[in-house]
Amino acid sequence: MDLEIGLSNTNNLMSSWSSLRSIAMLAYQSVGVVYGDMSISPLYVYSSSLSRLRGGVDMEEEEILGMLSFILWTFSLIPLLKYVFFVLNADDEGEGGLFALYSLLCKNANLRVPKDSVKPHFRGGVDKSFFERHAWARVSVLLIVMLGTGMVIVDGVLTPAISVLSAVSGIRVKANLHEGLVLAIACLVLVGLFALQHFGTRKVAFMFAPVVILWLLSIGAIGLYNVVSWNPRVLRAISPCYMFHFLRMTGKDGVVSLGGILLCISGAEAMHADLGHFSRFSIKVAFLGLVYPCLVLAYMGEAAFLTKHPESIHMSFYNSIPESVFWPAFLTATLASVVGSQAVISATFSVVQQCAALDCFPRVRVVHTSKLIYGQIYIPEVNWILMLLCLAVTLGFQDTLSIGHAYGISVISIMFITTCLMAIVIKASWKKPFCVAMAFLLFFGSIELLYLFASLMKVPQGGWFTLLLSSIFLVLMYVWHYGKSKKYEFDLHNKVPMETLLGLGPSLGIVRVPGIGLIYTELPDDVPPIFAHFMTNLPAFHKVLVVVCLRSIHVPTVPTTQRYLISRIGTKDYKMFRCIVRYGYTDIILEDEDFENQLVLNIAEFMWKEAELEEAALVCACAASGDSTVKMVMSESKELGDEDNGVEILRRRKRRVRFELPKGCEPVDAMVEKELVELSQAKEVGVVYILENSCIQAKKDSNLLKKIAIDFVYAFLRRNCRAPAFTLNVPCMSRIEAGTVYYV
Question: Are 622 and 613 in contact, with CB atoms under 8 Å apart?
Fold first, then answer.
């Protein structure tokens, strides 16, 4: 079954944002959310890059101008040319980010690994045959995406540490504070930042854009003042010749210093990752109209100051601020660093939620923090892990230079992975010639490889942290995905044959008692093997059985009106149904507390419309159309017992359920009416959730690597992640679980 049947493009945002006023408002909002991280880069770019060059001692004007030339051209080629003109045009129905690119490729190049690769979903194209023939190619792309996701999580650890520490360290310019006290203040700010995450960004979102706009205008004005006051000749750095002069003068040390220059583009990936919350045009307007000119002026002004005061390299930003506006600028810098960190933390929550939806991350608790703004979520486990890692980085490295070494590797790795995926998108999705994709890859890839090489040269000085932590996340994500895929393959090969099930007759060979039983499975088209386990161990089963499959598909979001696909198992006498509940990779699974009623209502509507249709395929599409016509009315009546000392004792609360058909419709036949009555009676009795609590173990003849992955790593993740019943919001009093052991 094609799980994406009937889905419409609900993210065509530009159709509703055509007016100039709407675009301006979205551009204003995007400044605080998208560009918070990028806007605080001037705090540490020069100190991190020039400190790698002879320790920042005896700097000449030509060297500073060469450094500025590298910054200007890097900032123009990557965020401006690459992202504004290319990457922002690659969206998955309005959503952006690494997983959006991967989803785009899954739709157009058959990259689904491994669940959906059992029944490939082709949409035409030359490249599909390549990925269809070579499983290693599909796995390689998945590993690249997982590595990029791990780098994004590392980015969520390093960005708050380097941003807050850089901002707080500025106080040492005016106050002679001990380094330990500065670290303590930075840690307190970080603890407060992560402690407030459960309130959600909605509580403070109104101040994001004003803070970042004030910050950008301030550093732009200060930069313009420094250019005019100290050295207007820095405008000559626009010429790329100064880059070659810089490399010729500095040699190997100059190449190493490029690892600090790339920090000027940190946060550029947010332009694409946050595409789903804004329009493409509004993000471009904000960048071209405000962010780009202000940051260019800031970098030029700081370089102009350094040409006259090269000894101030370690605190160059704060030393370049005029005395009269130092404290307002310091306060604004601190607020901007918090805003920039908040944006990255929120992005980390989003990417983890997307990974978990596609079975690439262990189950976690996802909390919506806003009823108005879609996509603002909070994940407690990830939040506290990020806080502990962030504090460990701050206290372990204790300076922005070492953190910058680690930060640079994560930033440029995400950029290079995006370039690789974009090259495939250009060929497989945009249907451009192969030479166009290769030209994109070679041009931007060569620039990013140069910076990646420069960053890797500082692995012993801090870069090892990024490689170690991202590798750990990569292993954990792939092992979890591998274990889930093996369980899926086991269920697929040991499913209950439909012939065997139907051969038992309508009673299924057991007693059918009133009520509704929801049997959860990962198989969208078959009956899971756990059903046979229940039939052989339970003396009775519910009169109405629904096999429920929750599937995250490769679209950003599925409207609630198109979420349910209902079909029948066997004839009407069996009273068995299959329901596929579809979710996008940005949706929260079962966030709707009224799931039971919605499910029963969709089954009732299916029964009513089934009588009007003849083809099962049309029935499925009709059940998911979202044109809800059948209504379910529920009422409760209390039956009271005798009085005990004047107090009435409540004995039983009886629930009544009935269905209302739309006015003016033709009367239903007796068979449909009987089914609706039986369904309402079953709903009155109650709904029971039937879950499988499985344990996966490697076979005895498996190799050592597989045994370690399954018996230790996967088992550890399974024991310490959220249980399926918790993530599915299943009530404890309405749950039946069966423990099984799978050998894979």
Answer: yes
